[in-house]
């Protein structure tokens, strides 16, 4: 191999090395930040093949898509001094790759800043709420999550890390194992007290309703009895009037009728009667 061939081969190798060191590829879903002596010079977002200055510039890749970070379970005191274990997750993404590298250097560094902001906000917000309101279905858990999200967004925007927080959500709020049984027993006792109060109120209301019904019943019976006596009296008076009117038309028949009635009463049990044979009563019995 001649000297010119050797020089040409060396030049080709050097050129290939320089060319390889000058090219880099930007993939879909990532940022490429071009660094010069460790300082971010520019950010490339569009996918494709790009050029850089070999040996002077190098490239750092950062994710462009949304990421989810799950915090480790943390013990926090509520407003009523109940220790609870809280874990949550954060949806976030990098919006300014150059600023992100200048301030936190890596995804791990960004997660650390997010974790600090989320912990501070969660601890502060939950310390303003009683435990029973945190676990209740009727309380504004969604409002607490929204407040924490806004709080974290404000903190990270203020520090300008090049991070955008999309959402922060509490996954679980639970009691430490050593506190669960005592709290559950107290909750059971409270529910039993409420149930006893409801039963007592129901029993009292039942007595009121029963007493009112009995009083109404007695009043109705008394009124009905008074009405019946009045109707009977009116009926008896009407019957007496009809009898008097009928008997007044024939006094002899009435006298005869009354005599027959007396016979029925007198002879009802077949008694032995002694009377003069010439008495009017005896003559009627003998058909004279």
TrEMBL record:
One GO process term, biological-process aspect? proteolysis
- Transmembrane stretches, start-end: 6-26
Q: Name one GO molecular function term.
A: peptidase activity
The organism sits in which domain of life? Bacteria
Q: Does the keyword Membrane apply?
A: yes
Do you know which CDD domains this protein is assigned to? SPFH_HflC (cd03405)
InterPro entries linked: Band_7, Band_7/SPFH_dom_sf, HflC
Query: Keyword set for this entry?
Result: Hydrolase, Membrane, Protease, Transmembrane, Transmembrane helix
One Pfam match, by short name?
Answer: Band_7
Q: Where in the cell is it found?
A: Membrane
* Family annotation (SUPFAM superfamilies): Band 7/SPFH domain (SSF117892)
Subcellular location, principal: membrane
Function per UniProt? HflC and HflK could regulate a protease.
Family per record: Belongs to the band 7/mec-2 family. HflC subfamily.
What name goes with this protein? Protein HflC
